[in-house]
Amino acid sequence: MMTAQPMPDAVCPCGRPVSRRGLCVTCYRRAREQRSISFTPHRDHADVVEDVEWMLTAGETHPEAIARRLGYAGPDSLYKALHRADRGDLVDQLTRKGRP
Known about the structure:
The structure is a single chain. This protein has 100 residues and is mainly alpha-helical. Helices cover 50% and strands 0% of the residues. The chain has helices at residues 25-33, 45-57, 63-69, 75-84, 88-98. α3 crosses α4 (75-84). The longest helix is centred in the middle third of the chain and has 13 residues, at 45-57. The protein starts with 24 loop residues before the first helix and ends with a helix. The mean pLDDT is 80.
């Protein structure tokens, strides 16, 4: 069985490290048992695009940091969201900035 790994710098409302969907393992299990797992609304594509554009113009250069600040598990999740928003240009820009 695969165990959830805490995301660095992300904290659950209870104060413990986040593992998925903005919650620690305990709170996630509790929400799942109560069938209230849809508590986290999905962000609108326009909001994600606006935030990514702002971070890029502000000088953020690490795709991993941008993804974490926006609540994604990693850059790949952010890239998928940007592709859904039809913003492959931002994905290209992020991947160029992520190269050493």
